[in-house]
Design goal:
With 842 residues, the chain is of the alpha/beta class. The protein has 29 helices and 29 strands. Keywords: ATP-binding, Helicase, Hydrolase, Nucleotide-binding.
Length: 842
């Protein structure tokens, strides 16, 4: 087999791993239409038949560890509220939707009543129509009542692709309404000459939090007529706003509300979310407002066959001789090839841009061996493409011209890909909410669909494919965010002061932590207090203090050395590991080598190259306990949560062969140490517990280290994070606890809520960790259980059996959740009584 478009080293690696083994539906109405886009087949095989063909052969069949069948569900109709204008109802009916589902009508009623509402129903349940019907009706009312623009609405999405898709949907739906509805996308791709028209005339502006933060709010005076008339703010896919990113967006929305109040408007927030735990609470934390929840999904659903697929072990060996499982990338490429040959319209979701490109190239090469025309019907879709390239791919997918697409999560978030038959998911995407969002891309026309989760060589993926109940019998996660994180809040207070001077009454809008930060911002010379409040007095743009998709701070610019062209930026916090000297950097499908990292000028100089390897930074980490907020006895050991200071230094990097991960060499680096004040959960064990677990001093370090790695890998099952969002340290004798201790901490300044979630679910989290290690078929540890792809110590020492015995003993004495909650309640009551006593004494 030939892979003509790949570097020679990648070509060799793929050879070693190869296995032989219409009518467009309107997105907001996709669940209510039965027509499929023009396809390639007359008779359509069932999802079970498609899966049987994929898994034919003894070696293939053994890779399916579980198959879940979800039967079809009937829908429940309702009638639109009588305040929805008849022209809007007629336009919806012209799109093929005679009656709304019950949850759509309920959400529209709340919106018209002026109540902020979150619609948290399944994929393809018509959430878009639930908010568009009241929005369009209100825009029509405003257009008739005013001579100018009238009422306005703002739509926020996490991706450009989704905003562009929604504009198309609004235009199609609102076509019968004439030019009274004027939707326009305002993002980084919008030409300068169009932006003035949008500010003056558009009444439905579609943008993203980044543009709101950096462009609209700092220039609010130029947007005054739009903001003065703002009635609704739509926040689509709001479950994606979690962790540090979600905390930043929460503060951007508070700034928006403050500026709107300045112009006399008080918009209603309409949020759409994939099914999530306690969506009203999460939406309220995001917006700072009370939010009504609509979560009873009344839409119909076609049958779904969901398979869990584990790639086989290969004859290759990785670090310290550990067996290597065939990669999810190579396995997914095989499956995409097979589905395309069956004429099954498929999207393969991949976590990385490189992975998306690679899967599409492999599939194209294999299809070209038998049918070159078929090979041209497979492509990749990811961030970094030019806008016209993305739009062309979206059109080809809509029309059925494309049969197979390897995509990053840019296509996960609500983009209309109705008519798909199957979805492949290359590696667990980090949360059950995201997993179901991706799986729901198929079968969106109400017909049956196939979803396949292909496990990566990772402890969490290994656990899930062997414990299907963790996917199918568990609710989706809560959305974790912390708007009061001082590292997030401080730059937004500066940005708010630059927009309008901050007053004492304003501080309540930004949360309880805001008043305490003001003296610090004054002392730092960032704000100056005068009679009218706090003012931003610097020449720089205050909005540039916060990188809302990072952890704050000034980003490091990535510049092409030969041309001076700016390729992009990376968070300052991540620069040591991602753009150190010698690092391989990917940008828009091209590969670059970092020649120099200048930390003083915040710039990384790169040059284009095609190295036959990837790079992984190695670091050393120490941790100090600053404050213990709460602790609970676990037998003679303790489970604790509090504030820590982490000192980290990147000391070297590994070069790994593409695809196989084989280590080619290590290069030393000379970078300064970095400190991070954050939040952590940690647990200690005593000598008695070690004796009971038969842990000798010789294996103690390896047992703790293995338990740390696996627990980090498993935490995304319990908190809405990625393993790269968190870090860990294990110490046989920690100077602050004076005991063997394992720490897991948030990898963001001030914390992101992940460690706190780990503390509150510790028994279930560490039980799953033990199961993941014990059930792995390897002998002494591998990437599927205790080896970590980001270990700064080269995965040494590790002791698999010791980790299992240690966790078994720790969990044997762990309190059950109700016992712990009772103890926490007692401690909280005692603390409250003590505080009240101190106040009385004062």
């Amino acid at each position: 087999m030939a892979f003509n478009h790949l570097p020679a080293a990648m070509h060799d690696a793929l050879e070693a791993l190869s296995v032989t083994p219409v009518t467009h539906s309107v997105p907001m109405a996709k669940n209510q239409r039965t027509a499929r886009p023009a396809g390639d087949r007359g008779s359509r095989p069932s999802p079970r038949q498609v899966l049987e063909r994929l898994s034919s052969g003894e070696s293939r069949a053994a890779r399916i560890t579980h198959m879940e069948h979800m039967p079809a569900r009937e829908g429940r109709h309702a009638v639109w509220p009588d305040r929805i204008r008849p022209e809007v109802i007629a336009a919806v009916q012209a799109a093929g939707i005679e009656h709304p589902w019950a949850h759509q009508a309920e959400a529209a009623e709340h919106a018209l009543d002026g109540e902020s509402v979150v619609i948290a129903t399944g994929t393809a349940s018509g959430k878009s129509l639930a908010y568009l019907a009241p929005v369009l009706s209100t825009l029509l009312d405003g257009a008739e009542a005013a001579n100018g623009r009238g009422t306005t609405a703002l739509y926020l999405s996490p991706t450009k692709a989704l905003a562009a898709d929604q504009r198309r949907a609004v235009r199609e739906l609102a076509a019968p309404l004439g030019n009274r509805i004027r939707p326009a996308v305002h993002d980084g791709d919008t030409p300068i000459e169009e932006r003035e028209w949008i500010r003056q005339y558009a009444n439905y502006v579609l943008t993203n939090p980044d543009m709101l933060h950096r462009s609209i709010l700092p220039s609010h005076a130029r947007w005054s007529s739009f903001l003065r008339s703002l009635r609704y703010v739509v926040i689509d896919e709001c479950h994606t706003y979690r962790g540090v990113f979600g905390s930043h967006v929460a503060q951007v929305l508070r700034r928006l509300r403050r500026v709107c109040a300045r112009y006399g408007s008080d918009p209603v927030f309409l949020l759409a979310s994939a099914t999530s735990a306690d969506p009203a609470r999460a939406a309220g934390r995001l917006t700072g407002l009370p939010v009504t929840e609509v979560s009873d999904d009344a839409s119909p659903r076609g049958e779904l066959v969901f398979a869990l697929w584990e790639p086989p072990l290969t004859e290759l060996h990785g670090e310290r001789g550990a067996p290597v499982r065939r990669t999810a990338t190579a396995e997914t490429a095989d499956l995409l090839t097979g589905l395309t040959r069956q004429g099954v319209r498929t999207v393969a979701f991949v976590r990385s841009r490189r992975g998306a490109e690679l899967i599409s190239v492999i599939a194209q090469e294999r299809l070209a061996e038998t049918d070159r025309d078929l090979a041209r019907r497979v492509a990749a879709y990811r961030g970094g493409y030019l806008p016209e390239e993305r739009r062309a791919l979206e059109r080809a997918l809509h029309s059925g011209e494309l049969l197979g697409l390897a995509a990053t999560t840019a296509l996960e978030l609500g983009v209309d890909v109705s008519g798909l038959d199957a979805v492949l998911i290359a590696g667990y995407p980090g949360t059950r909410a995201s997993l179901w969002q991706q799986a729901g891309r198929a079968g969106r026309s109400g017909e049956g669909a196939l979803a396949v989760l292909v496990a990566r060589d990772d402890p969490l993926d290994t656990f899930l494919v062997h414990h299907p109940e963790a996917i199918f019998d568990q609710p989706v996660e809560s959305t974790v965010l912390d708007p009061d994180n001082p590292y997030v809040l401080a730059p937004h207070l500066c940005a708010a002061a630059a927009e309008l001077p901050l007053t004492e009454p304003d501080l309540a809008l930004f949360g309880p932590a805001a008043p305490g930060l003001m003296p610090q911002l004054e002392a730092a010379g960032l704000l100056r207090r005068r009679t009218g409040g706090w003012y931003w007095t610097r020449r720089e743009r205050a909005a540039d203090l916060a990188d809302i998709r990072g952890g704050g701070g000034s980003p490091v610019r990535i510049v092409e050395e030969g041309t001076g062209r700016l390729l992009g930026t990376v968070d300052e916090a991540a620069s040591h590991t991602s753009v150190h000297e010698g690092a391989v950097h990917l940008h828009q499908g091209r590969t670059y080598l970092v020649r120099k990292l200048d930390l003083e000028d915040s710039v990384a100089l790169v040059e284009e190259a095609v190295p036959p390897y990837s790079t992984t930074a190695r670091d050393t980490t120490s941790i100090a306990v600053l404050e213990t907020d709460t602790e609970i006895p676990w037998g003679s050991g303790r489970l604790c949560y509090g504030s820590v200071e982490v000192t980290n230094q990147v000391v070297s990097f590994l070069r790994r062969r593409l695809i196989t991960g084989e280590v080619l060499g290590e290069t030393k680096l000379d970078l300064p140490p970095r400190t991070l004040r954050t939040r952590a959960v940690w647990w200690t064990v005593t000598e008695d517990q070690l004796d009971a677990a038969r842990i000798t001093p010789e294996i103690l370090g390896g047992a703790l280290h293995a338990a740390e790695h696996a627990s980090i890998g498993m935490l995304p099952l319990f908190a809405t994070c990625d393993r790269w969002d968190i870090g860990g340290v294990s110490v046989p004798l920690h100077p602050d606890t004076l005991l063997p201790t394992v720490f897991v901490y948030d990898g963001h300044p001030g914390g992101a809520g992940f460690a706190e979630r780990a503390f509150h679910t510790a028994r279930a989290w560490l039980t799953a960790t033990r199961e993941a290690i014990a059930s792995c078929e390897c002998e002494a540890g591998c990437p599927s259980c205790i080896q970590s792809p980001k270990c700064g110590n080269g995965n040494d020492p590790l002791h698999k059996r010791g980790a299992v015995r240690l966790l078994t003993e720790l969990l044997r004495e762990a309190p059950h959740p109700n016992e712990r909650e009772e103890r926490e309640g007692q401690e909280g009551q005692e603390g409250q009584e003590e505080r009240e006593g101190q106040e009385e004494a004062g």
